[in-house]
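G., the chain you wanted modeled:
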Amino acid sequence: MIGDEPANPIIRHTVDELGGQHTEILSHGLTIRQYFVAQAMQGMLASESEESGFYKVGQVAAKACEVVDACLAEELRTRE
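Predicted structure as C-alpha cells:
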C-alpha cells in the first residue's frame, strides 16, 4: 500500500574482504504515512489561533489522518 514504505530508513552499506557489497537496514523508522500525519498535525497545531479556533484533542489526529489518506490516494491515482 502506498504510504507504508519507510520514510527515512537507516541503512548501512559495507564491503567485505572479497569486494562484495552488502546493504543492511538497521531501522525502518516511520512510514511515509506516519511521517506525513505528524507533519500535518504540526501544521494544524501551529496555525491555531483565537480567531481561527482551536482543535479538540481527538480532532487533530483524525483530521490529519483524513488529509494524509486523501493525499496518498490522489498520489496513487495520478501515478497510473
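The chain has one domain: 10-79.

Shout if anything looks off.
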